[in-house]
Design goal:
The protein has about 500 residues and is of the alpha+beta class. It is about 45% helix and about 20% strand. β9 and β10 (about 345-350) form a beta hairpin. α2 crosses α8 (about 185-195), α6 packs across α9 (about 210-225) and α6 (about 140-155) crosses α10 (about 230-260).
């Protein structure tokens, strides 16, 4: 494909999928790599024809010292040359990932879209209608193939097989669009070369450190060499076919959702929160699984859970909806719950999780032993715990391979994660998996997600128990003793 043909392909994608209207304001996610530079170039070519307001947003993830700053300067320079405003946002992605207990990939995505939506909100605040604001991102046909394979190996259903959509509704009433989705990576790279765009190259993309990279570097080439040399196109066709079926099922599911969803005034109170959707349990029970599961998914999407609901979760929800119990519940990721009570099935966010997400803050102070003795006398009514700061710092040093201070970023309050460990009170050596700790304490599986951990890396230093007024258990290794020289005082800021 030559450089004149590629913009025509993009324009066809835009028109076929109704991605742009005349007079739209387009925010281009511009990393500086080949895909985003190609997208930016094509948007410049279409700017006059579509009378577009055009601007760019660049996010510096600070993951590649030196290279990341060069990428940022490159993006700013091509935007200056094109006369297009560009907002550059720098965030310490690794630090944020650690604080949130997520991967660098997930944290990076959240940071990017947060920056895009911030830019969109600024336009809306200036009076531009939200539906005229489009956020253009540069996923292509190869990204689609990689996403499909990631989902297939994880056991996806028809929803997942539909792949990446050409557009989706974003925050603030905006739209996220993907104009390059009908182009393969070789075509994009060829276009950049022909137009002498000289995009930045992220060499970490050639390192098999993430699942997507391993699929790109190992699985796709293997499938192409041994099974189907046109595997990317084949997966794109599978995605298109699955989308047709999925759209049909969702059309019926949305109609069922409207009929099974209770009126708004019937909401509230479930789990002690107004973040709830009440559904007709009897109607759900009668629905075909393909429709029932989509109705449930629509309910959770309405209150904020739009991913991470797996087949096992749907199976458990089917059991409680169809079972004979007057009341039961299933715990889902992120503190979300499906509860049944007589004729109702309620999708809601648990009160405990809502408190953590919206109200809790972890206050950290380093004190001398004398200061601690003076301050602790006034804290009998608050939720706090004291630790030997020297032991905490030693553990932080072990984790980093050197001497480290346990700063505010290294200790986080979060839900449990796979691989977490803990040394219970009275255990003089070694440590337990947090799962084994729950077994020893006879905590039912259905209740374990309600616990909160204060962690240093994967080690819990304080386990907060929702069934004892949140007063939990301190890690034996970090207790204050007669030999303690400095005290780390941790306090939960809100009343629980």
């Amino acid at each position: 494909m030559n450089k004149t043909a590629l913009p025509k392909t993009v324009k066809n994608t835009i028109e076929k999928n109704e991605l742009l209207d005349k007079g739209d304001h387009v925010i281009v996610g511009l990393s500086g790599g080949p895909d985003s530079v190609c997208l930016f170039s094509v948007m410049l070519e279409l700017k006059e024809e579509y009378r577009l307001g055009l601007q760019a947003v660049h996010v510096n993830h600070m993951l590649r010292p030196g290279d990341a700053d060069r990428d940022q300067e490159f993006v700013l320079s091509i935007c200056r040359k094109a006369g297009v405003p560009c907002k550059a946002v720098a965030c310490d992605c690794a630090k944020i990932a650690k604080e949130q207990g997520v991967t660098d990939e997930e944290a990076g995505r959240n940071i990017r879209y947060g920056a895009f939506y911030d830019a969109a909100k600024e336009l809306i605040d200036k009076g531009i209608p939200a539906d005229k604001v489009k956020i253009a991102v540069a996923q292509n046909k190869n990204d689609q193939a990689e996403t499909m394979l990631m989902r297939i190996v994880r056991g996806t259903g028809v929803n997942g097989l539909s792949g990446i959509g050409y557009k989706r509704k974003g925050e603030h009433g905006t739209w996220v669009i993907r104009p390059l989705l009908d182009l393969g990576r070789p075509e994009i790279e060829s276009y950049c070369k022909e137009k002498s765009l000289k995009p930045c190259i992220d060499h970490t993309n050639q390192q098999p450190v993430y699942t997507r990279n391993r699929i790109r570097l190992k699985l796709l080439p293997y499938l192409s060499a041994n099974f189907n040399e046109n595997i990317v196109d084949a997966l794109a066709r599978l995605s298109a076919s699955a989308k047709e079926d999925n759209d049909y099922l969702w059309e019926h599911a949305n109609a069922a959702y409207k009929s099974l969803r209770r009126e708004a005034e019937a909401l509230g109170g479930a789990g002690g929160t107004d973040k709830a959707v009440v559904l007709d349990r009897g109607g759900l029970k009668k629905a075909e699984p393909a429709i029932r599961h989509r109705v449930i998914l629509a309910a959770f999407q309405e209150i904020g859970l739009d991913q991470d609901i797996a087949a096992t979760h749907f199976s458990m929800m089917d059991q409680v909806i169809s079972g004979g119990s007057a009341s039961a519940e299933v715990n889902l990721p992120g503190g979300y719950v499906m509860s049944v009570s007589y004729g109702d099935a309620v999708a809601h966010l648990s009160k405990e999780h809502e408190n953590l997400a919206e109200q809790w803050a972890l206050i950290k102070k380093t004190l001398t032993v004398e200061e601690f003795k003076s301050e602790s006398g006034a804290k009998s009514a608050s939720l706090w715990a004291a630790f030997d700061y020297g032991c905490i710092c030693a553990a932080a040093g072990d984790a980093t391979g050197g001497v480290a201070r346990a700063d505010a970023e290294s200790i986080v309050l979060r839900s449990r994660q796979q691989g977490d460990c803990f040394t219970p009170e009275g255990m003089k050596s070694g440590k337990k998996k947090i799962q084994d700790y729950f077994v020893d304490r006879k905590i039912p599986k259905t209740e374990r997600e309600r616990f909160r951990l204060v962690c240093l890396g994967k080690e819990a230093i304080w386990v907060l128990n929702p069934f004892s007024g949140w007063r939990g258990e301190i890690n034996e290794k970090y207790k204050v003793t007669e030999g303690t020289k400095e005290v780390l005082l941790l306090e939960i800021s809100s009343e629980l």
